[in-house]
Design a protein that fits this description.
Blueprint lengths: L6 H7 L5 E5 L6 H8 L5 E3 L3 H9 L1 H6 L5 E4 L7 H11 L6 E5 L2 H11 L4 E5 L5 H4 L9 H7 L3 H5 L4 H21 L4 H13 L7 H8 L3 H13 L3 E4 L15 E4 L2 H7 L14 H18 L7 E5 L5 E7 L4 E7 L10 H14 L3 E7 L5 E3 L2 E5 L15
Parallel strand pairs: 1-4, 1-5, 2-3, 3-4, 10-11, 11-13
Antiparallel strand pairs: 6-7, 8-9, 9-10, 12-13
Helix pairs in contact: 5-6, 8-14, 11-12, 12-13
Length: 396
């Protein structure tokens, strides 16, 4: 397994906090990361029926075995443990004592905020970002292969056929996790909902429309989407709210964390199909947005990321609020940039600067091979997204 970008951050947090929580989707590498970073700690997985029953029926007895600390894997299976960890770490707040992992962040964050507030540091390990994919000897070559393969570590670590592995991943998720969380009776309707979400990736979220096409209510669609988000399959990119005296779009956009999973749900069974696929632009846009999110999260930074669109037609795909300035990111799936490629970020940047006084910088990510620094901004090749300074520079 390759070194994960998040590893130094986890080690650093463990020097100051008695509990470190690593969340993220199933199969994102949480267990491997924690066991490599803390090889001397006892390890127990709550996926094991015996361990889970012990933790649920006798939590004090379960934790008594780990007086010096441990790695507790998939703790969403026994969320009540957080309440019993609190007095233990209060009595002995040694840094890095307990390391927890979990795959459903909504319930976990609620449990931790109630029981371990001020005691636990939380980080997110998402599927592999481009810089991590490059560390594998069999990393996919070219943009389309990268989009199609995605970033789940097991695929690259073992050289598995991506779509075959992802098919099993989706089946396992639908058949087990969804039943546990939602008690879904009609699995076919949920599968249809998941695939419809894929066809709308990169678009404004319309829950009523999704629900109508699946034959479910708006409330059910909202609940199902919340489960996809809490399981780190999808996320929403919120619109930027700015006092510009304009009517701004207030609906979020829907994206998938992993482009390989998105390709599977869109029934793209070969990387070669991407060159002419009608949704290639949306797939590429989603991949870039997810890369920006991973770049921040894997460095332990909570990104201030939005999109901008007003009703006059001005639009920028991503706005990153960086404190001293804004970075306006436009995403183009073509290999050749058009002459007016910086026109939209320039127009939006001037409007935002006039309203707030905050300067804006522009970056255009495209599918071509060459990155350039231009007077209007940075032209960034897809292959350089892992090298560009998306985050604000550290204070001097």
């Amino acid at each position: 397994m390759v070194l994960r970008t998040l590893q130094p951050r986890v080690l650093d947090l463990a020097t100051r906090h008695p509990v470190v929580m690593v969340t993220g989707p199933r199969q994102s590498g949480k267990t491997t990361l924690c066991r490599e970073v803390f090889p001397g700690k006892p390890y127990v997985s709550l996926e094991s029926p015996d361990e889970r029953e012990f933790a649920l029926t006798d939590p004090r007895g379960f934790l008594a075995r780990f007086a010096s600390g441990a790695i507790l894997d998939e703790v969403q299976r026994a969320p009540e443990l957080a309440s019993y960890l609190q007095p233990m770490v209060d009595a002995d707040p040694a840094p890095g004592r307990f390391v927890l992992t979990g795959s459903q962040h909504f319930g976990l964050r609620q449990s931790l905020s109630q029981s371990l507030a001020g005691r636990a540091a939380i980080v997110e390990l998402l599927p592999l970002a481009l810089d991590e994919i490059r560390r594998f000897p069999n990393a996919p070559a070219g943009l389309d292969a990268t989009l199609w393969t995605g970033g789940y570590p097991r695929i690259l670590d073992r050289g598995l056929p991506a779509q075959e592995w992802l098919g099993g991943y989706v089946a396992t998720y639908v058949e087990r996790d969804v039943r546990q969380i939602l008690n879904v009776g009609d699995l076919l309707a949920f599968q249809t909902f998941l695939r419809l979400c894929a066809t709308r990736a990169g678009q404004l979220l319309n829950l009523s429309g999704l629900g109508a096409e699946c034959g479910i209510t708006h409330a059910t669609a909202r609940q199902w989407l919340a489960v996809l988000e809490s399981s780190y399959l999808t996320f929403r990119l919120p619109p930027l709210h700015a006092n510009l005296g304009k009517r701004l779009i207030k609906t979020p956009k829907l994206y998938f964390y992993d482009s390989g999973l998105l390709c599977y749900l869109l029934n793209i069974r070969d990387a070669g199909q991407l060159a002419v696929h009608p949704l290639r632009g949306a797939i590429f846009e989603g991949w870039v947005v997810a890369e920006l999110l991973k770049h921040h999260r894997h460095h332990g930074v909570v990104p201030q990321m939005f999109f901008y669109r007003d009703r006059s037609g001005s639009e920028v795909d991503v706005v990153i609020e960086r404190g001293a300035d804004r970075l306006l990111v436009e995403i183009k799936a073509g290999m050749t940039p058009s002459p007016d490629v910086f026109e939209a970020p320039d127009r939006v940047g001037r409007a935002l600067a006039a309203a707030s006084g905050l300067p804006s910088r522009a970056a255009v990510v495209y599918a071509g091979a060459e990155s350039q620094t231009r007077s209007a901004g940075a032209l960034v090749s897809w292959s350089d997204t892992d090298r560009f300074p998306w985050m604000a520079p550290p204070p001097q």
